[in-house]
Amino acid sequence: MLGRLTIDALPFYSAIAAGGAAVTVLGALSVVGLITYFRAWRIVLFDWVSSLDHKKIGIMYVMLALVMLMRGFIDAAMMRGQQAIAFRSDGYLPAEHFDQIFSSHGTIMIFFMAMPFLSGLINHIMPQQIGARDVAFPFMNAVSLWLTAAGAGLVLISLVIGKFSTAGWTGYPPYSGIEYNPGVGVDYWLWAVLIAGVGSTMSGINFLVTILKCRAPGMHLFRMPLFSWTVLVTSVLMIFAFPALTVACGLLAVDRIFGTHFFTNAMGGNMMHYINLFWLWGHPEVYILILPAFGVFSEVVATFSQKRLFGYTSLVLATMAIGLLSFTVWLHHFFTMGPSADVNSFFGIMTTIIAVPTGVKVFDWLLTMYRGRIIFKPPMLFTIGFLVTFVIGGLSGVLLALPPVDYAMHNTTFLVAHFHNTIIPGVLFGYLAGYMFWFPKAFGFKLNETWGARSFWCWIIGFYLAFMPLYVLGLMGMPRRMEHYDIAAWQPHLIVAAVGAFIIFLGIVCLAIQLVVSIRDRANARDLTGDPWNGRTLEWATSSPPALYNFAILPNVQSVDAFWDMKHRGVAYQRPERYVDIALPKNTFIPATVGGAAFVFGFAVVWYIWWLAAVAFAVILVAIIIRSSDDETEVILPAIEVKAIEEARFREMEAASKNEMASDPGFAGESVLEATS
Amino acid sequence: MTADTLGTVEMAALPTSDTQKYEDRAFGFWIYLMSDAIIFALLFATYLVMLGNTARGPTGQQLFSLEHAAAETAVLLLSSATFGFASVAFAQASRPGVIQWLSVTAVLGLGFLLLEYQEFSGMIAKGAGPDRSGFLSAFFALVGTHGLHVSAGIIWILVMIGQVLTKGLTRPVASRVMRLGLFWHFLDIIWIGIFSVVYLPGLV
Fold this sequence. Notes:
Radius of gyration of chain A: 25 Å
CATH architecture of chain B: Up-down Bundle
Order of helices and strands of chain B: HHHHHH
Largest sheet of chain A: 2 strands, antiparallel
Oligomer: heterodimer
Structural class of chain B: mainly alpha
Strand content of chain A: under 5%
Helix content of chain A: 55-70%
Strand content of chain B: under 5%
């Protein structure tokens, strides 16, 4: 009846595991409690869970990402704590628990922190940047969200019921095969990744069609803001790379359930094939994560340098080049697996070549700042921090791209330092910059800048303290993923790294305080104009938060930096002669149902509860058939209501006479809102 | 007030038109097919990597029957033709024609699945199931994934027959049948790949 699920699955065997479970359960209960306390169930269900509005979906993605960032960070802090004290001692974590923690840390940070964060930013901003009213497929968009949430739910529940994988976030066989890993851990990992991966593939299709088909009149591809360009390339990568993850993990799942021999040791299995398939997805994935962050940096650096982006075309071409090259370097993840010297040389050379377009970008950003009047708002701080730090990570990557060097460094903490040195400043700083940059757009008030700056300084100082010692340790020969060690020389570095992790923790605390303080003081930080930073691109033309339809009248784009151009021609805020009816997607609970059923399906398969898996699958099938038979999926917002909303906005704008930057000491431009009235 | 002097034009008169919506869906579906084609490409690659890994078990030469594969091919290709007739009937606005040809297509699809079931169960009975060797795992994964797609296609055909019966030949139904057609013909192309990569070389 319950497959292999028994009472032993509950984590009462260890105090630490039980503590983790308790935190998870209490967290879930407190969310439920808070919603009940504020009597917000109606709002949560009917305004959010059932919403197909790309902006709300984007916000929910980012909320998921921030929650998972906490969880992933706790894992990181536990590892740093363990390694700081585990010199000739067992520390406080048993080896098996330590292995679960590094596996879940990587899985969460890549799949359930970074992916939702990027999908959230893209969802909220990209349609506005290209002058669209929604994404091309609002329903599928919501399904993607809830599938991602289902995967995240599986990772979270593994903390309470059963155990998580010990096979690392890459799950290499044969160790992740059923022979060496008969428990449920690897299955939790597999099904979380598979379900979320389907969601990501659909997101990619959705974003691509949106960009190619739904742009406003005049928005040629080479007039698109750079963030939208990076989204375009990232979507292509998602569409072509995620199938490889689906195949790799799907075949491993089949190996585990049906006893096939794709990746086993015996009977003709070929475990190296898994590693090829996995990285065929895994390397493009790195660029899926970082390209939108590059897009954010491009927007931020132009806005806060108060200059047009330097080398727009070269940035676009570099983005395309990176997208193409990202499919030609996957083998550098396993130079030591034993390909011939020729093969290794090819991939080594391709890997170093990919640094060229990235370098082009760095110079473009620097030259955008050159002779700009830079205003040091928190998003700009993160951008400058990124520029300085990312170059170091990139250079250590070029080192690792040389196969002979890689033979020496492989699997050491040098590698760990390298990829954190690219992903934290490159990806996470980018997303945090985007979060602070676009927060006023999403919610209509600005985030507190003092706490934002504090958070930045904690993040960057913490980052250097936490990861520079790992470079040194790697050169001293310390392998990654060590639960304890007996080399005294390592310990001081590991203690410094733990201190760094603690400072990063302060950075996260600052983020939380920033949010709370900003919500408390929101009355003083309202963004009435919709354009708090004197922005350049179309998302700043909408109100903050934008109306359901984003644009009452689709903008007519005439140049790069469309909104800037409109402001300077004095046509940014003109009242149209008349308004028209606008079709909007109706709310529906089907996407959340599909996500919930996918979660149950994953859980059932993990525990071999086959009847439940069949039921959940049937629910998904029926839900999709019901939806596919529904021809009334849109609701019309009448022109008269559009007019009322827009008139209210014009009145608000007249009350606010300028954007926030106009009061800044370094502000170079003139206040452009005077033309309004 | 022309477009040149104003930031906005009278594009407002263009709500997302239905034509645009269905074009977007068709385009999105093409993209999905590309993504699915990658899945098959990787399964083909897996098959070729695993081709020699028979673990002293049976090889393709001992297992495959050209007659059987030819019969499967014939049935599936025929079903693509009958789907074409359904599309023609749709263009001629013949509701009975559409239902009739979609039903024939579904029956042929089921026939294909039946033949595949015979082949698979015969192999498993001979001790050549997917757990026998890496080669057979890859064979069952590739051909089986195609079979799962055909099954999904049949369910979709049945749903569309239901929609044609209840809704008639409306615009949204037409758009769905068009995409179903893309899917069905796509599976044919994949099968031709399977026939050429799996069965023909296996028997030469």
